[in-house]
Design goal:
The protein has 325 residues and is α+β, with helices and mostly antiparallel strands. The chain is built from 9 helices and 5 strands. It has helices spanning 7-14, 19-74, 104-121, 124-129, 145-164, 170-179, 194-197, 232-236, 251-324, and strands spanning 79-81, 86-88, 130-138, 180-186, 200-206.
Length: 325
């Protein structure tokens, strides 16, 4: 009898498995999903600096908006350049030719600018981004370059003196000292006319995105007086100027210090006496050595004379013996 093979089983084995198609589709979907996530993350990472820059620009614009608002309230004329982050004070803060002296009106305007600037600094946007305040002095194109550099620095110094000469608390003075930086721009900002060129501008320096550096502690220093002020010598000699702190050493401590000095002086004198005695002893020893050396020389001379006498005696004896023979 021939062996009968079941046909149904063979058909099942040879037919294609329907699950292979759905598994391949699933893998394709996962790869596509992975690629989509990767592309989104790459776009997010690459666009982060752009977003931070836009946020920084909007915050800086908010700081300048605050400055303009406060200046209008105080009726203070400010010329703000948002592109260069500079603030100028118009005609009132200009200088005469070859001069660094500010008019009284300009000084008053600069003093009124201080509380406005500090209030804008204390806003959330100012705390986050404002780093330094640069005082830049400018000159016209007349004269030599190095002379104009010196003149521009003096003009910037005059503005700093005016800013700090107002009625400010010690805390605000220290805060302002930590923010101000003096720059001598000389002839790099020439304007259309000489009058417009002879000026001082305030440039605000803002942090870059990612800059998290914090300013260190400021040293406690007296404000002092402005050196370029014509009345500096009079103010320097004024009795109201800050003097050095008086010593808190008591009389007992002074007496102890004097006693210590006296004891140290006595010790030094004793040491000096000992040194002199040792030098004297050394000199005596040296003298004794010289005397001993002389004695040794004398004894050697005596021995030589005695040996000569002995030689003479032996010679005489030999001569006598020869005569007898």
């Amino acid at each position: 009898m021939s062996k009968i093979i079941p046909i149904t089983r063979k058909k099942i084995e040879t037919t294609e498995n329907p699950f292979w198609i759905s598994y391949a589709d699933l893998m394709t979907a996962l790869v596509i999903l992975f690629l989509v996530i990767m592309s989104i993350s790459i776009v997010a990472i690459s666009s982060r600096p752009i977003v931070e820059k836009q946020e920084r620009d909007s915050d800086i614009s908010a700081v300048f908006d605050k400055l303009e608002e406060l200046a209008k309230e105080k009726k203070l004329e400010l010329e703000i350049n948002r592109t260069n982050h500079t603030i100028s004070f118009g005609k009132q803060a200009r200088f005469d030719s070859d001069s660094f002296q500010l008019s009284t009106e300009a000084q008053n305007q600069l003093r009124a600018f201080v509380p406005i600037m500090l209030e804008a600094k204390e806003t959330p946007h100012g705390i986050r981004w404002l780093k330094q305040i640069h005082i830049q002095g400018f000159t016209d194109e007349t004269g030599s370059y190095l002379y104009n550099v010196h003149l521009s620095l003096k003009r910037a110094e005059a503005v700093i003196c005016a800013l700090l000469s107002g009625k400010l608390s010690k805390k605000l003075q220290q805060q302002l000292q930590g923010l101000l930086i003096i720059d001598g721009a000389s002839i790099t900002g020439i304007k259309e006319s000489y009058e417009e060129s002879r000026r001082v501008e305030v440039r605000l320096e803002f942090r870059q995105p990612g800059d998290t550096t914090k300013p260190g502690p400021l040293p406690e220093m007296e404000l002092g007086y402005c050196v370029i002020d014509p009345k500096y010598d009079e103010k320097k000699l004024d009795t109201k100027q800050p003097t050095a702190k008086k010593s808190t050493v008591t009389k007992e401590k002074k007496a102890e210090i004097k006693e210590k000095k006296a004891t140290t002086a006595k010790k030094k004198s004793v040491v000096n006496k000992k040194k002199t005695t040792t030098t004297e002893k050394k000199s005596v020893v040296n003298r004794n050595k010289s005397v001993n050396d002389k004695k040794k020389v004398a004894t050697t001379e005596k021995k030589g004379a005695a040996s000569k006498k002995q030689e003479l005696k032996t010679d005489k004896k030999e001569s006598i013996a020869e005569k007898k023979e």
